[in-house]
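pinning this so it doesn't scroll away 📌
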Amino acid sequence: MSVGTRTGTLLKTISPARRLDIAASYEALTQACVATGDDPAKAELLSDSPNHLWSLGSRSCALAIVHPDVDEAWALIKGA
């Protein structure tokens, strides 16, 4: 997983279970970036509770929310 320096530091200090959750979130983020043309290589995790909020870097100023439940994710999008 290739992430920004803050997220890389975070991953070294958290529990293995939480690290797996973030890795799965990053995988979903990577798949979404393929579709949108964004580069997830320097993504920074801004928040992981209750949803994973990622910054895709200062160049694009894009944010991505990765939610583990598809139905709840659609509800968040529709409610935005």
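📌 and the second one:
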Amino acid sequence: MAAAVDMLDFVMSCAARYAQQGRLLSWDEPVRLDVDEPSSSGMRFLLPTPAALFEEDFQFATGPTGETNFCLLVPAYEVEADLLASRGPEHLFDVLEEQDVDVSDLRRSALRIRGHGLT
């Protein structure tokens, strides 16, 4: 039952964040959650990233009012959100790759940021 309550809190937190922003997500803007990502070790941020794992025809949908770009929401620690906000998505992705981070692992360690523009 606790996991269901955590998931409901998480979904409501995401919905409230979207309503507060009044606009769609951006690649270079981390989303701070009011609660930890369920089953994570203290991750409170979501990083919108291109859905590069999918075929391009799935990632984009064009309709009569414009184009929708689907994204993945990668759970992240505050230090990773700070790196995204200060240095941009390309730099963050380079550091994630350099440190061989599995972003799907909710129990992973946070990035080591020494020498990457944060103190």
